[in-house]
Amino acid sequence: RHCTDTVCCVIFIVVILGYIALGIVAWVHGDPRKVIYPTDSYGQFCGQKDTPNENKTILFYFNILKCASPVVLINLQCPTTQLCVSKCPDRFATYIDVQASYRYKPDQWNYFKQFCKPGFNNPRKSVAQVLRDEDCPSMIIPSRPFLKRCFPDFSTKNGVLTVANQTTFRDGRGKTRNVTDLREAANGINNVLDARSVGMKIFEDYAISWYWILIGLFIAMIVSLLFLVLLRFTAGVLFWIFIFGVIGIIGYGIWHCYWEYDHLKGIPGSDLTVYDIGFQTDFRVYLQLRQTWLAFMIMLCVVEVIIILMLIFLRNRIRIAIALLKEGSRAIGYIMSTLFYPIVTFILIAICISYWAVTAVFLATSGEPVYKVMANQTLCKYANLTCDPETFNTTNVTKLCPGAQCTFAFYGGESLYHKYIFIFQLANAFVFLWLVNFAIALGQCTLAGAFASYYWASRKPADIPLWPLFSSFGRAIRYHTGSLAFGALILAIVQLIRVILEYLDHKLKGTQNSFTRFLLCCLKCCFWCLERFLKFINRNAYIMIAIYGKNFCTSAKEAFFLLMRNVVRVAVLDKVTDFLLFLGKILVAGGVGVLAFFFFTQRIPVFAQEAPTLNYYWVPLLTVIIGSYLVAHGFFSVYAMCVDTLFLCFCEDLERNDGSTAKPYFMSASLHRILGKKELSPKKA
User: Fold this and answer.
1) What are phi and psi of 274, to 5 degrees?
2) From CA 27, how far away is CA 36, in angstroms rounded?
3) What's the Cα-to-Cα distance from 77 to each of 38, 120, 131, 214, 366, rounded to whole Å?
4) Nearby residues of 209 by Cβ (< 8 Å), 6 or more positions away
5) Closest CA to 645 of 332, 230, 336, 434
6) Does any domain span residue 633?
7) Are strands 176-178 and 168-170 parallel, antiparallel or unpaired?
8) 3-class SS string, 169-209
9) Phi-psi region for residue 282, left (φ > 0), alpha (ψ -120 to 50) or beta?
10) Does residue 232 form part of some domain?
11) Is 444 inside any structural domain?
């Protein structure tokens, strides 16, 4: 063994160090509070400790009618003054009414002024000036906090939209408005609030049933292990039962088509052709034609003949595939630790995802507060221009545009760092893809090395190394980090291109350029196929790296040509393995899911008292089913890697050895018997 692809290894290490540096820089400049806390018109966080807004955790909008929808309120800046408040309004009130009665109803003024700008306490100031300078809102309406923002407290009464049981309200500017003026906001808010209610109930269900969910996943793990063990004895039986079942079903379909064809004989109109009746939206019309059933019968006969011919001519290769599946089950039985290696891969990928997500958030919040001129006058030429709140009152803007304010708009910046934040985000995504693919490659190479040590052992299991999994992991890290990084790099480049194409497709969805959409669709399809092909090549290249210790390109070339020389065996083994493992996943997820259904619906008398009372029984049920499928997929991915490794070793064994005393085969006795004497005879020079 020697180090392979050392240049790529050095580059990979340098990129990781650079990625760490990028994370540190993002951490220094970023501030996640910009995502967590809402920001008022002065760029201050609502609810931030050790600030005047510490106890003011909710954002209040002076005139929510200026905000088109809740999406605008959350993601963009609404063109109205925004303040941090301790609680949302709980009543209707207008500034005109409160100002007129502040002398003999001071409580109303004291309540209303908490929604005015901090420090404003001058009810004698004229209403026109107050509204122009936006010292106070022209009105307040009953609201409730959601996403730390005050939204109107909408409800329906007899199918009519209301706020605090009222259908109209005064806007404080001399107009009476209908609650339906807020319909756009209402529709979005009500949907979100309903989702929030459902979300709370789902959270309660998880809190009550989490340990039963874990028990269900543990049962799925046990069933998955049993299935892998039983494959040693039942792989052939399951496959042939399925094949003969398909043949029988198709045979029944042929008989049924003939019966329908004969039954329609003599019925008026049944002898018409499809061409005669043309296109019909009711497809049942076609079922009244003899020609339809004749076409169905011919197609099913063709499929039946193809399957039977494939079984006749590929029977030996199918037997080899089944024998390899049984051998894979036997290999896992000797190296049980491999079943738990996916946990290592899961932890590595979880670390990559966490680091990427945290870095992305810090990069996204690296900007400085940007302030813009907000003017009530639509013709103000300074509107939406950037401004400095410290010097804004000394400029001519307030004179030329009375009532204009310098308010917080968004986070950004003009420095060199801020200009390249988008590039940093792309780099963050690219290195993330590279690291995830490396973690997967490391797992595949480690498992391949462990299972290869089983196959090439002369006496099984006596000659298998003591710790095959740990030995293989050590070899992969010590000698082949560069090769694994090289393969992961190629795949990451293709995946990043696919991400960019998806982004462009999303941006160009509204365009009417058919050629552009067609070109993007073709590019997406091509790169999807390329990614699938590269994953197939990489997987087999890692197996050859684990066996021979060569560099990535040499291993990929040798693996590709070895597979091409055995292309029929590859196709048969791939389909047989896919079917059996898919069947296993369905059996595990379905079986545990049925058990969970009967348990959570309290239909098992023995456990009826133990079953928790839930808002939605489907919440833990779906969690158990999906979780069981993922658990089974984790175990079966090890099994699939085992079968692929044994297959490549088997092909190499056939090409390098001839079964003679000088060059004996390393394959098991069952594979010896399937190959027969002809293939086991010594090869002629």
Assistant:
1) -60, -35
2) 16
3) 11, 24, 20, 44, 18
4) 600, 612, 614, 619, 620
5) 332
6) no
7) antiparallel
8) EECCCCCEEEHHHHHHHHHHHHHHHHHHHHHHHHHHHHHHH
9) beta
10) no
11) no
**Domain count along the chain:** 2
Give the number of other Cβ atoms within 10 Å of residue 229's Cβ: 14
Of 246, 226, 200, nearest in space to 332 by CA: 226
- For residue range 135-185, list pLDDT tens digits in order: 888 888 888 887 788 888 877 777 677 787 888 888 777 788 877 766 655
- What are the backbone dihedrals phi and psi of residue 424, each rounded to the nearest 5 degrees, phi first? -65, -35
CB 519 within 8 A of CB 513: no
> pTM to 2 decimals?
0.70
Cα 202 to Cα 191, 195, 198, 600, 616, distances in angstroms:
16, 10, 6, 14, 7
- Which of 567, 525, 538, 256 lies closest to 546, judged by CA? 538
Separation of alpha carbons 141 and 163, rounded Å: 8
What is the Cα 492 distance to its own chain's centre? Answer: 17
| pLDDT tens digit sequence for 14-52 | 999 999 999 998 888 877 776 667 778 777 888 878 778
Q: At what angle do helices 421-455 and 6-29 cross, to 10 degrees?
A: 140
124-130 contact pairs (CB < 8 A, 24+): 127/95, 127/96, 127/99, 130/95, 130/99
Stretches in the chain below the pLDDT threshold 50: 68-76, 186, 188-189, 193, 676-685
Long-range pairs for 423-427: beta carbons < 8 A, 24 or more residues apart: 424/22, 424/26, 424/363, 425/360, 425/363, 425/364, 426/496, 427/22
What tokens appear for 523 in the block?
A: 């590019």
Nearest to 419 by CA among 362, 366, 370, 371: 366
Of the candidates 348, 558, 337, 554, the one whose C-alpha atom is nearest the C-alpha of residue 441 is: 348
d(CA 409, CA 392): 15
Q: Is 389 exposed, middle or buried (0-12, 13-18, 19+ CB in 10 A)?
A: middle
Closest listed residue to residue 559, CA positions, set 575, 539, 534: 539
**Counting Cβ atoms within 10 Å, is residue 486 exposed (0-12), middle (13-18) or buried (19+)?**
buried
Q: Is 36 a member of any domain?
A: no
Q: Of 141, 173, 205, which closes a domain?
A: 173
Give dist(CA 369, CA 107) in Å, integer. Answer: 37
Question: Do residues 45 and 58 lie in contact, with contact meaning Cβ atoms separated by under 8 Å?
Answer: no
- Per residue, what are the HEC states of 495-515? HHHHHHHHHHHHHCCCCCCHH
* Residue range of the domain that includes 406: 368-412
Alpha-carbon 676 to chain mean position: 48
Cα–Cα dist 456/450, whole Å:
10
**Closest to 594 (Cα-Cα) out of 228, 222, 219, 221:** 219
Alpha carbon distance 137, 81 (integer Å): 9
* Among candidate residues 173, 197, 222, the one where a domain is terminated: 173
- Read off the tokens for 642: 């085992």
* Residue 59 buriedness (CB in 10 A; 0-12 / 13-18 / 19+): buried
